[in-house]
Amino acid sequence: EEELLKLVAKANLERLIRTSGVQEEPLLLTRDGVVVNGNRRLAVLRKHNIGKGYVDVCLLPDGVSQADITLIEFRLQMDDPGKADYSWVNQLIAIRRAIDAGIDVEAIRASMPSLTKNEFETLRKSLDVVDMFLARRGTPGDYSAIGDDRYFFDELRKAIKKNQRFPDKVDALLWVAASYYDHQPEDLSEDRSYLKFKKAANQLGRIQQKFGSSTTEATKSENPSDPLSGIAPAGSVFTSLSTGAKTSQEIHTVVL
Hints:
The chain is mostly helical and 256 residues long. Helices cover 55% and strands 5% of the residues. It is built from 13 helices and 5 strands. It has helices spanning 2-11, 13-20, 39-47, 66-78, 81-84, 88-100, 105-110, 117-137, 150-162, 167-182, 193-202, 204-211, 245-255; strands at 27-29, 35-37, 57-59, 214-215, 235-236. The strands form 2 sheets. Strands 2-1-3 form a 3-stranded mixed β-sheet. A two-stranded antiparallel sheet has the order 4-5. Helix 1 packs across helix 3, helix 2 (13-20) crosses helix 3 (39-47) and helix 8 packs across helix 9. The longest helix has 21 residues, at 117-137. It is elongated and about 70 Å long.
C-alpha cells in the first residue's frame, strides 16, 4: 500500500479523489477478492476513509481464467495510459508477460483497441529490440534499467530494421547503444541521448572501419561433401568488445 500511494502521489490521483470525496468507479475484483483494477484508488480511499470502510465493487464471474484477467487489465489499464499513468516501458513489460504466459498476440492487440495495428506492431517490435539491448548490456530482463527513454529505443529499432540483413551491423549497433545509454558521450552540439545515438547509427560504416569487422573461423562440418564445410558463419567482433564511458567517447570521436 505504501508503494501504491507513492504512485498515486506521482500521478496526482490522490488530490483528484480527495477533491471529489466519493468513489466514482467500482473496483473490479475476482471472486476470491483479488483487485484486478483499482488498487491505487483503493489505497487512497482507505487512507482518507472515504466510504467509511466500504467500497463499491464489481465481481468477475466464476471460472474466469488468468488469461482473461490479463486481457481485462490490458483493456482497462494498458489501453488508457493517461488514466492509469502507465509508461511506455510498463506497456512493454505487460506485453512480454502476456506473451510469456502463452496469450495469443492477436488477443493482446484486440484488448488495446485505441492502438492501430501498426502502432501495436511497433510496440511489439520495440519489445524485441529492448530485449536484444538488455542482453547485450548484460542485464537480460531488467526492464527497470531502461527507464522510459522511448526515443532512444525508437532510434535503435529503426537502425536495426535498416540493417537487419547484416548481423555484424546489428551487433555493432547494440554495442554502441549499450555504451551510449549508460555513458552519454560529450557532444557540444547535442545534449539529447537519442540524437547522439542517431548520429552514430548514421556513421556505422566508419565505426566498423575503426573498431572491427566480421571474422570467419574454420569449423568442422558433419557433411564432408559440403563445399563450405571448412567455413563457419561470419562472426562479429562487437559481441565481445567492452562498453563503458571511455568506449562511448572513443566511438563518438569517430562519429563526429
